[in-house]
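Please check this today:
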Amino acid sequence: MILGLTRSWSLAGYFIAAILTLPLVALIVQATLPDQAVFNHLFNTVLPTYIANSLLLMLLVGLGTLVIATPAAWLVARCDFPFRRYFQWLLLLPLAMPAYIVAYVYTDMLDYAGPVQRTLRAWFEWQSPHDYYFPSIRSLGGAAIILSLVLFPYIYLLARTAFMEQSSSLLYASRVMGCSPWRSFWRLALPMARPALAVGVALVAMETAADFATVSYFAVPTLTTAVYDTWLGYGSLTAAAKLSAIMLLVVFSMIGVERFARRKQQLFQKQSSLNEADRYVLSPKTAWVALGYCAVLLFTAFLLPFIVLCGYAIDYFNESWDVRFWQYSLNSLYIAAIVSAVCVVLSLILMFVRRVSPRKSDHLPSRLSCTGYALPGTVLAIGILVPLTFIDFAINDVYDWFGVRGPGLLLTGSVFALIFAFCVRFIAISIGSLENSYKRISPSLDMACITLGRTPNQLLWRVHLPLLRKGIFAGALLVFIESMKELPAALLLRPIGFENLATYVFQFVSDERLEHGALAAIVIVLVGLVPLIYLNRSLEQQG
């Protein structure tokens, strides 16, 4: 027993970590199996294009989000202009909008038959596409623009926090030395915020690498679509696993580069709050320019797609409000509820072991369990399918040995595979939420409880749980929302005949009929707004 922690708790942590890392291990093992015919064919034909498109898309989206988000974060954090307090949280709303829905809305508007090109042809009396040039939204550049509009809040949030935490005395010194607000931003604030910007770009790049729906809708071949096509088109799970291994190499390389870039990061001066007097007072003209920039960004990334969705939902309400909508909504709700409950329970065990045990080796399970969040949905689906299929076959072999008919695909043919995949992918969110809550609990409480002769169970139930309620609720809520929105893993692992809201909407998007699924899409968006409302409270306390 170590500080009251029995060996059973430590073993439980390692067992949970082993289960959650099983898909990653299975994927690596599957990728080493021989199946060179399909993979060599891909390598000699389309694989270089897949890799080049993936890297180029990550580069374009990373640059796009950086250019979009950094000025907005600086304006909201350090400048004073009309409605600034509202924009500090309104600019987070695009996170609630799935990228493939935004892609459909803008494709519908900007395609040849859309209202924009129709209006241009009417104004200039153009008769055919040969009379003018209009860039195609269904391209790699179009996908980069759409993903940039949806993902820029990642960088915005981190950059805004970094700008607010910078010492005002340094900015005052720059003013005394004659630096204008622009020069202070470029030469002082931006370099100090570089670590936060690097983290944001790395997150955006990983989300871009994991995106399947947008690039599939725009017919942009990337490694994500290659895994999907190789698995279902060529019927080669091993070749798909090899492609997944390449994706993992790219993703983990980005994580390594990001951590290496900030390995020597140190913060010597921090300002926890920012007074109104510390902000730059913009001239009336500049203030309206700042307001216009934030308003256009919000309108383009969230309001316009949401307004279009609402119009679709009203026009096609009778077609959308049916039994399928209710059934798929219930499917999404109960899957998300189960996943959030399981993730919270497992995270609580992992973080309790990490909290109480002084051994560094007992910190390893919680870290290993978070690796699943870096796995794109299509990659995770293969990692889930390999071990569960093996277990299904083993169960049926045992039944056959006893001369009894087996249960069939007990795991891979049910929602268990889907729930398992979501738990592997999203448990990192609940672990992060509980970790932040644990940091606010003084270790002296643990020592006092142990000194009084309490057991680990009593320490957890009587001391930790009451103090962790907010963190548990926040983690469960975030996992619930992510489970409602996850698409690639749901597409590949859902049982036959099973649909949730995400797959239901994507089918309409693929068939160019989002109008019929707009009501379901609005539900996904509105549910996604819930955690942003809670996040807004913390932003108001900071701002």
Residues 323-356 form the longest helix (34 residues). The chain has a mean pLDDT of 84.
